[in-house]
Amino acid sequence: MLSTQVVIIGGGATGAGILRDLSMRGVKAILVERGDLGCGTSSRFHGLLHSGARYALKDHSAAVECINENKILRKIGKHCVEPISSIFIKTPQDDDEYEQNWLKACEKAGISTDPIELSRLFEMEPKLSRKIQAAYMCPGAAIDSFRMLWQIFDSATQYGAKTLTYTEVIGIDTKKGKVEGVTVVNKYTNEIKKIACDYLISAAGPWCGRVAALADMHMSVKPSKGSLITFNHRLCTNVIHRLHKPSDADIFVPHGTATILGTTSIDTHPDDNTTSQEEVKSMLQIGKETFEDLEDYRILRVFAGCRPLYSEGLDSGRNTSRDFVAIDHQRDGLEGFISVCGGKFTTHRLMAQKVCDLICPRLGNFSKCTTDTVPLVEDTDIYLKRRGRRIFPSYALDLTMSRQGNKRFLQIVNSMEKDKEKAEVVCECENVTRAEIEVVANESTTHSISDIRRRTRLGMGTCQGTFCTYRAVGAVHKLGKAWTNNTQLLFKDFLEARWKGIRPVMYGNQMKDVELTRGIYEVSLNINHHDFKS
Amino acid sequence: MDKKVVIIGGGIAGLFASCICATKGYETTLLSYGTGALTVAGGIIDLYGYDANGNLVLDPLAHIKTLKEPHPYAKIGVKNVELAVKAFLALTHNANYEYLGDAHSNQLVPTAIGTFKPSCLTPKTIDTSLFNQAKHICVVGFELLKDFFPNLVCENLQKIFGDTKEVSSVTIGLPLKSGVEYRDVSALDIARLLETNLGYLNFKEQLKPHVKEDTLFVLPPVLGEEPNYDLIDVLSIELSSNFVEVSAIPPSVTGLRLENLLIHEATRLGVDIVEKAKVVESDVQRRHCNEVYTYYAGRKKAYRADEFILATGGVFGGGLISKLGRMYEPIFNIEINVPQNQQDWSYPYLFTGKPQPFATYGIEVDKSLRPIDYRKNLLLDNVRIIGRGLAGYDFCFEKSGNGVAIASAFHAAMQV
Question: B263 vs chain A: nearest CA distance in angstroms?
Answer without folding.
Answer: 23
